[in-house]
Amino acid sequence: MADDWSAARYETNARFVSDLGQGVLDWLDPRAGERILDLGCGDGALTEKLMSAGAEVLGVDGSADMVAAARARGIEARVADGHALDLAPEFDAVFSNAALHWMTDPDAVIAGVSRALKPGGRFVGEYGGHGNVAAIRTALSAVIEVEAGVADAPASIWYFPTPAEYQARLEAAGFAVQRIALIPRPTPIPSDMAGWLETLAAPVLAGLPEAQRGIVRDKAQTLLRPALCDAAGNWTADYVRLRFEARL
Ligand code: BEZ
Questions:
Q1: Model confidence over 81-100: pLDDT tens digits?
Q2: Domain count of the chain?
């Protein structure tokens, strides 16, 4: 699979993703000496916070560019597909921020997490829940359908479940869900919508012929301006987070 992630572009357009991770870190409550797996560690900005709590952390990510950026911070990190985790049950906790919505076979992910945890271990995460980036998704989907004739392109890339659906999947895999919540979080973004799309919808755009990518990006931005851009030109993305804590 192509690596559509650029750590440098992420730093410019998406640093807020890790900056806003404190809420889920509080739910994880990492302790000194714990062995923690950071699933979808990205460039390691949050992984560093786990390490500064005294945890011993392994980061895994599907992007080689992101793993290189994490290693440059001194983090033990490796490239791995979150659908096929094959790690020994050595972790006290598996943590994940803003990554699980990219993994469209959640049962395979949950099974791998379960294999990696010690008995009693916890799985704590946050990602896009039902209704996440609804306006962005609708605009992107509509423009891609008109320009490229592909129906609902984001559906094959993004997974945004309800709490009830995800809880049922966790329970079917043997987890006890301690808490789970959908959290609307309109999020000011540092760039315009074109910058957001280029960075955070890169795998969706990458599925299009190159000549169409810029057209789709610009038309989606035009459609979204009345809903997500204020009179001063500031853009806000319509994020909805799904945050959960589950134990084996
Ligand atoms: C999110 O963090 O919710 C997200 C990021 C990129 C695309 C879709 C959702």
A1: 999 999 999 999 999 999 99
A2: 1
Domain assignment of residue 111, given as a range? 2-133+158-189+238-247
| Residue to mutate, 46, 200, 205, ligand 1, most ligand atoms under 8 Å from C-beta | 200
> In sequence order, what are the beta bridge partners of 113?
none
Identify whether 230 is part of a domain. Answer: no
Residue 243: inside a domain: yes
Looking up residue 85, the CATH number of its domain turns out to be 3.40.50.150
Whether the predicted pLDDT of 1 surpasses 60: no
The reported pLDDT for the residue numbered 13 is 63
Q: What is the 33 CA–ligand 1 centroid distance (Å)?
A: 31
Is the shortest distance between the CB of 96 and ligand 1 below 6 Å?
no
Whole-structure pTM value: 0.91
In a domain, 194, yes or no: no
37 beta partners: 58, 94
Cα–Cα dist 69/6, whole Å: 10
Q: Is residue 96 part of a domain?
A: yes
Is the per-residue pLDDT at 213 higher than 90?
Answer: yes
Asked if 58 contacts 38 with a C-beta cutoff of 8 angstroms, the reply is yes
Of 20, 97, 101, the residue with max ligand 1 atoms within 8 A of its CB, to mutate for a pocket test, comes to 101
Query: What integer pLDDT is reported at residue 16 of this predicted model?
Result: 65
Q: At a CB cut-off of 8 Å and minimum separation 6, what does 211 contact?
A: none
Which atom of ligand 1 lies nearest, measured to the CA of 241? 3
